[in-house]
Amino acid sequence: MRFSSEDIPPEMRAQAIESAFGAHVQGMVDFPGDEPVRVDMGLRGLASVHIARIDASPLRLITPSDDNGLLYLSITAAGGGLIDARGEGRTVKAGDVNVMRRDRQCTTVVAEHSTILSIAMPRTTLVPRLGSIDNLYAPQVHSLPAARLLENYAQALLDDGTDLSLEEQSVFAGHLVDLAILTLGAKRDDAESASKGGVRAARRRAVKADIAAHLDMPELSVEWMAKRHAVSPATIRALFYDEGTSFTDYVLGERLDHVRALLTSPYLAHHTIATLALMAGFNDITWFNHAFRRRFGMTPKDLRAAQTH
């Protein structure tokens, strides 16, 4: 679900925002002060886990106690404010990772224009795997590797509009829980299993997104990618071995699919085939022609001729 207060008449915005945002956090929302009300929000449910990204003007959120329901882990990308749970106040600033207390009524004040990623997950799937219940209430630093992976993975799932089966949703939800417990501090026995699940899945998705963004670079390699993601080349290779392929074969496939799209675009018909191959990262045209024919059963020239016809 996508929601923008700009699409709603001013006199109806507060009510609409409380309906959409309040439903996610299961609380009440109001807007102190005279600043115009503005909220842009994306929401997605994945089995028992819900993701929301909120870009909002100052607001106040009141959540009742619910010790057996959902926990809300929030990552503040920009802005900040104050979380107050009956006198136990905690300042929130950009870069913090916090969990909203649900063992008592909590008031959250977003004091300035802020961007927050909120991930709701069942308490029963999270708490038993933490090293200590106190981990829930100690703010974490966003720069931690697990927190960065959690944010990037959750945002990628939120941006991806693909319809998912219930089984796929459960898998992705499990990855998010894995990353959350690593961010908050997992039990020793759970840290290894979480790393194999959520961390590997999030890192693989991040590497694939990075490949897509740099297909045109001939120097794209395992070593280059490993350096960018601060891991070993063996770690990068293992991400693709898990899927029955290799880094080299995956990159080749992505480049061939990309150049095929370029060849069939009417807006690029004035470019030569060699130019388009270079745009996709191929610097050996003979090898490109061979790989293209093996993949698609025709030469690039034949594909372009068929498209023109």
Automatic annotation (TrEMBL):
Pfam families: AraC_binding_2, HTH_18. Keywords: DNA-binding, Transcription, Transcription regulation. InterPro entries: AraC-bd_2, AraC_XylS_family_regulators, Homeodomain-like_sf, HTH_AraC, HTH_AraC-typ_CS, Tscrpt_reg_AraC-type_HTH. Residues 205-306 form the HTH araC/xylS-type domain. The keyword Ubl conjugation does not apply. This is AraC family transcriptional regulator. It comes from Sphingomonas colocasiae. The lineage of its organism: Bacteria, Pseudomonadati, Pseudomonadota, Alphaproteobacteria, Sphingomonadales.
